[in-house]
Amino acid sequence: MNAKSWDRFAKIYDGFMAKDALAYEQMYDLIRRKVKDKTVLELATGTGLIAGHIVKKATHIEATDFSAEMIEKAKKNYNSTKLHFSVQDARTLPYADQSFDVVIIANALHIMPEPEKALSEIKRVLKDDGILIAPNFTDADSSFKTRLRLRFMSAAGFKLTSKWSGDAYIAFLRKNGWLIESAKTLKAAFPLTYVECKKEMNS
C-alpha cells in the first residue's frame, strides 16, 4: 500500500481501529511502563493513537508516518508540547545515531516491502541500552474468519508483504539482530503479538 492509499484511508482509520480498542488499551498500558521519562520515536503512527495515549508518561515523542494525511489527522487528534508529528520514511530516518531511549513501530512491519531496512534504521537511532517496542498483527495459521478478513483487506488495497505467525515474527526479529525481552499475544481482530526487544550488540 503506497502513501496515496494511506492518505485516502486516513479519514476512516480511527473507525477501522475501533474494533481493537480493548487490545489497544492493554497495549497502551504495557507501553506506558516503558516510556516513563523517556525520549521516544514512533514510526507508522497513523492518526497518532499510540502516541496520544502514552505522551503523558514520556519526556518527548517524535511521532512519524509516511502518509501526510495521516499526520494531518494526528495533529488534529492530539496536541501536546511533548509531542511532535512529522512525515518520515521509516527506512531512511533523519535522526542522529542513538537519539532515542525507546522506538515504537506497531502493525507496520508486515506491510512494508523492506522491513529489514526499517529495523536497521531503528537500530541506528536507538540508544545502545534502548528498547524497541514492536507489536504486530500475526495472522498466518489463523482461523477461517481471519483469513476471510484478510482477503477482503487485500481486495481493498491492504496487501501484506509478510505473513507471520507469532513464533515466525519473533524469529524474524531475532534474525535481524534483536534480543527478545518479552512477548505476549493480545486478543484482537487479528492476533496481536506484542514484543519488546533490545539490540544484539554484536550484530
From TrEMBL:
GO aspect biological process, one term: methylation
| Superkingdom of the source species | Bacteria
What's in the keyword line of the UniProt record?
Methyltransferase, Transferase
- Name the CDD domains on file: AdoMet_MTases (cd02440)
Q: Does the keyword Cell membrane apply?
A: no
Q: Does the keyword Transferase apply?
A: yes
Q: Name one Pfam family in it.
A: Methyltransf_11
Q: Which InterPro entries match?
A: Methyltransf_11 (IPR013216), SAM-dependent_MTases_sf (IPR029063)
Under Gene Ontology molecular function, one entry of this record is:
S-adenosylmethionine-dependent methyltransferase activity
Q: Where is the Methyltransferase type domain?
A: 41-133
Checking PANTHER family in the record gives: METHYLTRANSFERASE, RHODANESE DOMAIN-CONTAINING PROTEIN
From the Swiss-Prot or TrEMBL record, give the protein name.
Class I SAM-dependent methyltransferase
